[in-house]
Amino acid sequence: MKKQLLSLCIVIGTMTFAQSTDEPRFGIKAGGNLSSITDGDSKSKLGFYGGVFINIPISEAFSIQPEAIYSLQGAKLKDDYDFVGYTITNMKQTLGYINVPVMVQYNATPEFYLEAGPEFGLLINAQAKGDINGNSYKTSNKDALKTFNFGLGLGLGYKFTPNIGINARYIAGLSNIVKNSGEEISKNTNFQLGLNYYF
């Protein structure tokens, strides 16, 4: 019985990987972010991302793509406000993450694919910037934020040539990014659009 089970595992494994003769492909990617924070007072902010990836075929229809990406995210405050005699305007929160998405891609055609998977983020830097009574100020507020971020990404892509493609992805944050926030939950959201280059 053990021999039959072992033989079955070997056959299934061989069939799975025999369906794809493609080798893993390394690549680079870069593009723009449209990010926000889900706290009710924020609106979207433009940023950028860039990094590397490896696309690993596991069958003719599916591949796995781990990535390492530097992503500049954050949000703007919707409205100006007064705080203990100070007028606060043009408030921006900038967040710099090293993100590691692990996307499972379904190749609907040789050119077009759909993808989904988790994204793990490490906060590298954080800066709050704004005008107080007409004077500009900025400060690091990384200590007030959680270092680890977790989200779920959904996206699609198209390969114009074997080496060049376009990718669109939405990442919904699932973890609270603020320390000691009480009952208020603040999560990252991010829409990415950019180019991939496959070596």
Automatic annotation (TrEMBL):
It comes from the Bacteria. Pfam families: OMP_b-brl_2 (PF13568). Residues 17-177 form the Outer membrane protein beta-barrel domain. InterPro entries: Beta-barrel_OMP_2, OMP/PagP_B-barrel. This is PorT family protein. It comes from Chryseobacterium pyrolae.
